[in-house]
Fold this sequence. Notes:
The complex is a heterodimer. Chain A is 1% helix and 47% strand. Chain A is mainly β. Among the domains of chain A are: 1-84; 88-165, Thrombin, subunit H (Beta Barrel), CATH 2.40.10. A 4-stranded antiparallel beta sheet of chain A has the order 1-2-3-4, with no helix packed on it. A 4-stranded antiparallel beta sheet of chain A has the order 5-6-7-8, with no helix packed on it. A 4-stranded antiparallel beta sheet of chain A has the order 9-10-11-12, with no helix packed on it. Chain A is globular, with a radius of gyration of 19 Å. By secondary structure, chain B is α/β, with parallel strands linked by helices. Chain B folds into 2 domains: 9-91 and 438-457, no CATH class; 103-340, TIM Barrel (Alpha-Beta Barrel), CATH 3.20.20. Chain B has a 10-stranded mixed beta sheet. In chain B, strands 5-1-6 form a 3-stranded antiparallel beta sheet, with helices on one face. In chain B, strand 12, helix 10 (314-329) and strand 13 form a beta-alpha-beta unit. Chain B is globular, with a radius of gyration of 24 Å. Chain A binds chain B through residues 14-17, 57, 137-138, 140, 179-182, 197, 201-202, 208-209, 211, 224-227, 244-245, 247, 267-269, 283, 285-287, 290-291, 303, 305-311, 315-318, and chain B through 114-116, 118, 123, 125-130, 132-134, 165-169, 199, 201, 228, 232-238, 299, 301-305, 307, 359-360, 371-372.
Amino acid sequence: MSTRDRSEALTGDVDCLWFAWTAGDRAVRKARTETETPVIEREPGVTAEAVLPTLRPACFLLSEGESLRWWSAVRGYLGPPLPLPGGDLRVLGLREGDGEGPGVLAADSERLLVHGPRGWSAALGLDSAPLVLAWQSRRRRALVVTESGTVHQYDPGSGHTETVEPPSPRRYLHGAYDEILGGIWLVPADSPGTACFVRAEPWPPTPVYEVDLPAVATGLGVSHSGEWLIVYTGDRPAAWLYNVNGARSFEAPRGMAELSWPGAFTFANHLIAVDRDTAEAVEIPARADIRAPGGELDIDVFWEARPRMHRASKANRT
Amino acid sequence: MSESGQKEKYKPSRFNVITPSDPDGLVIYNSLRGSVYRIRPPADEEVHSLLHNRSAVLDRPASGDGGEGLFDTLRTKGFLVPADTDEDDVAAAVSSRRKHRRDVLDLIIMPTEACNFRCDYCYEDFALGRMLTSVREGVRRLVRERHAAHPLQTLSVSWFGGEPLVAFEVIEELSEFFQSFCAENGVRYSAGITTNGYLLTEDVARRCLDLSISRYQITVDGPRSTHDASRYLIGGGRTYDEIVHNLEGMSVLEDDFQVTLRTNFTEHNRDRVPELIDELGRRFSRDPRFTTIYRPVGSWGGPQDEETGAHSGKQAELHKLDLCSHAADRGLSNGDERMLRPNGSVCYAASPWSFVIRPNGLVNKCTVALRDQRNAVGRLDEEGGLNLDEERMSLWVDTDDTSDSGCQSCFFQPSCQGAACPLVRLEEGRRPCPPHKVWIGPTIETYASMARRERERT
Lengths: 318, 458
């Protein structure tokens, strides 16, 4: 999700409990996702061109024109708007967003920018457009991955940066950071039906393996459990779920793939999909590879009393 | 003689166990003291004659009669007790002291249920992510409120998951609070972690020690090939070398900590475990901070129960003891002996001051039955309230020896108090005797033999 992304992309808060999104009318919607059917609310008078992620609970950054503004799904706007540098930016609001240190990170194709008490400044140079701007929570570092596969690490506390360039000239189209395995999934330009996994922890980043995706990807997401990739296709179905542990693919269930934004994972492992003012949520088993014996994602049977699980397949990668 | 001139009467403690020792002599154990002794010939016959008849009433031999030294030793070690002692009362008091403590709070905190491993035998479903911000605030307030209501002497925290180090930032955040709160309020703080060890790099280990995490349980299942076959990363990926590298990193630190290396064995991998023991012995035998334990893989409710070769019963227990013995011969300490001590075999779930805090604030008693409604005993709110369901709490803390006449007459009562596994009582309606109690003879014989060989080596 970037400042010029005009899709209905769902943005989750740091807890993956609150989600917010906008549509062509620029009205901001929010939903708290503790229930099977999320209750969607429009925020009167709150508009944005894009809803961007932060590391603060229930908080988002709203971009509109040349400004960026902290907004809480519980408390409304937080403080005055910040000036937003031009260009197509990936943005991340930090946890100490209103404190003395850096509050917002933004990356364009040339620089990683940091917004602090004295405005914007460049933290490091980038060689191409950023595919991923993510936060390594347990390392307290920001991670930037560009189209060249170059991986940058930035410590907002010390300002320290590290950069590792990939060994090959390959280019990449999409990426997603997986907190659980501590690595990055990247879709190569020369093979958009596959995804490479690059382990970024421990440093330095190391390519580990490549998997076949069920379709050519136009975007990539990852569940907080690390168990699922969401493969966006921009087609019908608009999303597939790829189970990392079982190396198996499933269509997003119950027609969710037909909605205009087909999915993000909530804290409690529900897949939520939205279409302007409607939403669907369904619980996805975190270990579906062993609970779905066939090709169908038969989600209703998984949480019965034990013995309740059975293995259908096992990936043989070692 | 007593001051009144009457001979003092004694009886064998009902908490004694006597078993023959290999190649000769006896091993004796008392569960109220948690002590195990090997008695060599010729004293073994005299000890046997004093202790074997539980209903005997014995006079202390007079000074100069011979035998009073042995008698007094057995008396001071608790194997002989005054004849008028009501040992049922004594055992009840041990249990009561544990259950009615209000000065201790034991939190098993799951900073996340996500895990970077997909072990074959794992029963968890990894459904919940990193602990919610509001739940973290609830944990802090819970500690404050508890201390305000009944001053705490001890706060004990066990980090569990999922893989807790996946959400290390939650551990850091809460640990810093626990440390400062306990320091300011004179509360003793201790912490441990159950981790797969993959993310426990030297820098993380140093930080954990800074955060007062001093107890570590890390699982290594056999040598590299068997470990990597059952404990692999999501999607595949070897883990053994990384874990052993991290353990070696810990061993060079000078801090005071305790690492328990756990090995889960099945019928499939058990013959390879001695290879692991040999390797661990080469690396850690001179470091008393590293101990080992062995556990047969049970039917824990995971997806591959039938495939993993889960086993139980006498053969599994005897194999466990063989592994303990092999480890001792390689200079690795046994981490299981505490289970023979008073309270040593009581499950944490049976104590009313012990709670599992899930990432969404759900309060459980047991870390196994995570989807069982009876285990959902409360819900931690942001104000620190546990909102306990007393009826469900009672299922875990009251179904023990107080309601079981078999437990009340058992020699092992002080150690397990009928509460070795409340889940077994709940699910199967049977007495949850721990395996080391069922096969107490081989257990204490093995421990005594290990101790003897250790003495001979040193």
